[in-house]
Amino acid sequence: MRLFRHGLAGVEKPGVISPEGVLLDVSAFGEDYSEAFFGTRGLERLAAWLGDRECPQVPAGSRTGAPITRPSKIVCIGLNYRDHARETNAPIPDEPVVFMKATSACIGPNDHVEVPRGSTKTDWEVELAVVIGQRAKYVETSAAMDYVAGFTVHNDYSEREFQLERGGQWDKGKGADTFAPMGPCLVTADELDPSRLELWLKVNGEVMQRSNTADMIFDVPVLVSYVSHFMTLLPGDVISTGTPRGVGLARKPPLYLKPGDVVECGIEGVGHIQQRIVAAR
């Protein structure tokens, strides 16, 4: 299945994309795509409920929200592509580099992204995001995919000065409002093999990133298992699996985002998302 959410920010309704690509409103199911939904076999229950049921189409022009409600946590993996580690002059990690992104940063796939006040180095990072489907603690790598509900596209926006030059951990350069657009949908794990997917990103129409998840240092099962040994993953939690080479920080000279820029990124089999960059309100 392909799940999405539609409507005004904060009052989104659940939807499903039909095999023919029609956007269907499944509000009558009575549940949003939340921790409770995923933690109570919601995907199976929704599939059974749908059956041959006729669902209304989503009105044309409706806003698309993030495909899940606000998760308990967004766990991010740094330097998980060898070419990205090299372009930033960082050593290839022996273990996954883990940091957290504020859940308040989560927005819809086509919402505007705000350059924070005082920012001069807002950057982009296309990433495959994993959505957890059931409570995961001390999970073995061989069983890790059993805990995955599905996948979505995440642009891990970063303010490099806040992240790297202002002391402390990476989190404050990653967690600004609007810095975690996700979507356009959640593709369930039974429909997608995450091990070899093309991913790309453009700024104002120019390709900046193009790679394949096959180039990850640590693949999805390893990451789910690894993170679960340090914190309990709850249904609906997100693990963002890292970005390939081509970030603005590493260009010569560096290139950063400014109001008016348009960033589009996508992942094979999942879809694409697009944001216009605006000044912080």
Topology:
Elements: E1 2-6, E2 13-17, E3 23-25, H1 35-39, H2 42-50, E4 64-65, E5 74-78, H3 82-87, E6 97-101, E7 106-107, E8 113-115, E9 122-123, E10 126-132, E11 148-155, E12 158-159, H4 160-165, H5 171-174, E13 180-188, E14 198-203, E15 206-212, H6 220-228, E16 238-240, E17 262-267, E18 271-279
Parallel strand pairs: 5-16, 7-13, 8-18
Antiparallel strand pairs: 1-2, 1-4, 1-13, 2-3, 5-6, 9-12, 10-11, 10-16, 11-13, 14-15, 14-17, 17-18
Question: What does this molecule look like?
Answer:
With 281 residues, this protein is an alpha+beta fold. It has 2 domains: 2-64; 70-279, Fumarylacetoacetase-like, C-terminal domain (Fumarylacetoacetate hydrolase, domain 2, Alpha-Beta Complex). Helices cover 14% and strands 32% of the residues. It contains 6 helices and 18 strands. The protein has helices spanning 35-39, 42-50, 82-87, 160-165, 171-174, 220-228, and strands at 2-6, 13-17, 23-25, 64-65, 74-78, 97-101, 106-107, 113-115, 122-123, 126-132, 148-155, 158-159, 180-188, 198-203, 206-212, 238-240, 262-267, 271-279. Strands 1, 2, 3, 4, 5, 6, 7, 10, 11, 13 and 16 form an 11-stranded mixed sheet that branches. A 5-stranded mixed sheet has the order 8-18-17-14-15, with no helix packed on it. The chain has a two-stranded antiparallel ribbon with strand order 9-12. The protein starts with a strand and ends with a strand. The mean pLDDT is 97.
Keywords:
about 280 residues, Fumarylacetoacetate hydrolase, domain 2, 6 helices
Q: Which percent range describes the beta-strand content?
A: 25-35%
Number of strands: 18
Residues in helix, %: 10-25%
Number of helices: 6
Largest sheet properties:
11 strands, mixed
What separation lies between the terminal Cα atoms?
A: 37 Å
